[in-house]
Design goal:
Heat Shock Protein 90; five-stranded mixed beta sheet; alpha/beta; 17 strands; five-stranded parallel beta sheet; 498 residues
């Protein structure tokens, strides 16, 4: 286990040497002794100690409190004050730096040890809470991004499908449009992954039993063009070692997500080995857990990078990296009830250790591949579309008109309410998030009409909308953007077949 590195900031050399001797006997590593606040900041910047023991009163232009304040603003390093005769005003001023403790001189080794370990514990708890707050904030941001992103994808997908149906004899055009539709599907999947990262839920209702060794093999095969073919073209040799993979039981998981985990880890390992190297996989099990270790012979990571590796948007590969890869890895493993740890030192490579519960007592969910949906003709309907995105209105109008329906479109809730009071519609397709009157407001009015139309809520939000369980806001179906024409037709047919 690596010893904690401590910087001593003390202008009385006899006292400083006594502290160093005590720290060494307690098993800590003394990084250095400096005598001024200016030197403390310089050392904190260059050497990144794990903790700083800071004398409050220093015989220099910058005292310990000012040095601690600047270190707090610039670095994530805990500071414990050393003091012998600080007055109340000085101690009050010291509070603004949020110190991790005070040690009163003279002190015994036991007091020093306790104060340092308490400081490390408090710092670890602060990091944990900060990470949780980052995830919470990102969850809010991601939810908003997904709404806007899904609106854009709905336009792309709708346009492509509309053109595809109009040019049935133009094979080349159809192939290109199919590519657009596939890209839209991929974009929707990105949204799902962003939300999965933000939430990292514990629900296992849609997990299946899968062989982790097989998933690792899939990840190796998927990345082969990079670690083998591309590398060889550059005269680089990468070796993939799977000799450490033992026979293990199946684990309850989302196989596609765990495959993504291994792909992300492999890509990071390859980035760390620009001149080639070895990636080694090993698997094992105990009574309740499957363990996976992935090691590389790359550059390794300094402590400050290792501490941030799972932070959202943190990357050492800008502008190429997004900083979401390892954050998603962390989130996926946590959502499986597992653990992930990193071992790394500069020049010594990196090992990622994963532990995934077997969950052997959980009933496996049987996953059945859905049959392709075939369009079924329904009677011709009068349909009102309400969406503040005009492009969405145009696309849906074209699709539904081509099916033989009579369609009206509006881009705000106020006009929609006024129109439904004087005209009858068989179906209203309403967006949720609109300026002014929202979809909630429109649906409440529709549910009070003497001749209530069927109501379909179409939205880019991915949250479960519990409010629509209420009687005055009930809807007949939900459709999440982006969607296929066949999905919309299927919902309409089902509603009017009742």
């Amino acid at each position: 286990m690596t010893k904690a590195k401590i910087l001593i900031v003390e202008d009385e050399l006899i006292t400083a040497k006594a502290i160093r001797s005590a720290l060494n006997s307690l098993g800590y590593d003394v990084l250095d002794i400096v005598t001024s606040g200016e030197e403390a900041i310089q050392k904190a910047s260059g050497s990144q100690p794990d903790l700083i023991l800071m004398d409050i009163k220093l015989d220099s232009e910058m005292d310990g409190i000012e040095a601690a304040r600047q270190i707090k603003d610039r670095f994530n390093i805990p500071v414990v004050y050393l003091t012998a005769h600080a007055d109340d005003a000085t101690l009050e001023r010291a509070k603004i730096t949020d110190p991790f403790g005070y040690i009163l001189k003279p002190f015994e080794d036991r007091e020093l040890h306790v104060a340092i370990e308490i400081a490390f514990y408090k710092h670890k708890m602060e990091d944990t809470l900060l990470h949780a707050e980052k995830l919470k904030s990102l969850g809010i941001i991601t939810a908003g991004i997904s709404h806007e992103f899904n609106n854009i994808l709905a336009v792309i997908m709708g346009t492509a499908e509309s053109l595809e149906e109009s040019f049935k004899d133009e094979q080349e055009l159809k192939n290109g449009l199919n590519t657009i539709i596939k890209a839209s599907d991929d974009g929707a999947e990105i949204v799902k992954r962003m939300l999965a990262f933000a939430k990292a839920g514990e629900c296992t209702s849609n997990y299946i039993l899968a062989d982790i060794n097989y998933l690792i093999g899939q990840a190796i095969d998927f990345t082969m063009p990079r670690w083998k073919n591309t590398a060889q073209s550059k005269g680089i040799c990468n070796d993939i070692d799977t000799n450490g993979m033992k026979e293990i039981p199946k684990a309850l998981c989302r196989p596609s997500e765990l495959t993504d985990v291994f792909i992300n880890i492999m890509n990071n390992a390859l980035d760390a080995m620009p001149d080639g190297g070895r990636i080694s996989f090993s698997t094992d099990r105990d009574e309740n857990t499957v363990s996976v270790s992935v090691s590389d012979t790359g550059k390794g990571m300094p402590e400050d990078v290792k501490k941030k590796i799972f932070d959202p948007f943190f990357t050492t590969r800008r502008p190429l990296g997004t900083g979401l890869g390892m954050s998603c890895v962390y989130s996926i493993i946590k959502s499986h009830g597992g653990k992930i740890e990193v071992e790394s030192e500069v020049g010594e490579g990196t090992t990622i250790n994963l532990n995934i519960p077997i969950l052997k007592d959980t009933v496996q969910k049987i996953v059945v591949s859905p049959e392709p949906y075939r369009k079924v003709a329904t009677r011709k309907l009068r349909i009102l579309i309400v969406d503040d995105n005009e492009d969405v209105c145009v696309i849906m109008n074209g699709l539904l008109t081509r099916d033989g329906h009579t369609v009206r479109t509006l881009n705000n809730g106020i006009e929609a309410i006024e129109l439904t009071r004087i005209e009858d519609f068989d179906l209203v397709l309403c967006d949720l998030a609109m300026p002014g009157l929202t979809g909630y407001d429109v649906i409440k009015v529709l549910n009070k009409l003497d001749r209530r139309p069927k109501v379909g809520l179409i939205t880019g939000w991915n949250e479960k909308l519990k409010v629509f369980d209420e009687e005055d806001t009930k809807v007949d179906f939900f459709l999440k953007k982006p969607f296929k024409h066949a999905e919309l037709t299927k919902h309409i047919n089902e509603v009017f077949a009742k």
